[in-house]
Amino acid sequence: MNGGELGGLAALVPDLLAGRPLAVLTGAGISAESGLPTFRGPDGMWEGRRAVELTTPEAFAANPKEVWRFYEWRRAKLREARPNAGHVALARIENVISRMTLVTQNVDGLHRAAGSRNVIELHGTILKTRCTGCGVNEPGPDAPFPEIPPRCACGSLLRPDVVWFGEMLPEGAFEAAAEAASESAVFLVVGTSSVVAPASSLATIAARGGAKVFEINPMLTPLASGADGCLRASASAVLPVLADALERGAA
Ligand code: OAD
Question: Which CATH number covers residue 56?
């Protein structure tokens, strides 16, 4: 892929270099090339079940051990995972342009591991636990828990510090993401199926605010018809090309 293959996005490089704001929304697809499975699609399964069935408070209340087995499996995969060229490119872009907000639905921490700084984690983080009793919020161990479901020192069950279906997003996270979207001149939607609200509404908020909306996803999504441009390729193919173009322009 070369600069020309950025399509209409190439024409916006000077605007970004001139300080017009960029906002980016990422989903599980950007971490797929780090070996982390997505939620939907052919790899989006876990032991023959849809992973989404386990990401609810009802599933945790009914069977915390089963839900924790799923999260221990994800935490083990994450221990082997490294940021890929897509994550790294977003960190490079943040270093070159003056205004960028990265909103992610991912709970894997790979954007920060790649060096991104202005990150809004809409769905929390798998790297921390939260006590269902006293509410204490702590980093989880680097190794597997000796026993699942793990318990807090207060005796109550610990849960992953993530957002499940039907739960509120972390305080202020969506408001900050919506503000970044509505102020942005360019809004990139990377590696998400764009079916989970409220994250899926950010592209509309951005477009209403006047942003040019571009999707980077090898597959067709519901966003495509409303976007200004769709790059049907993987995040690790497109984002480094954009980072190169911005770095060249800034040199
Ligand atoms: P999905 O699994 O729904 O979608 C992943 C998207 O990534 C799909 O559209 C793929 O086509 C695309 N994709 C796959 N490989 C890619 C690549 N290399 N580069 C770019 N795109 C690629 O994941 P999300 O949209 O992130 O929420 O899912 C949203 C939310 O649903 C998750 O945050 C999670 C889940 O239930 C909660 O747990 C609350």
Answer: 3.30.1600.10
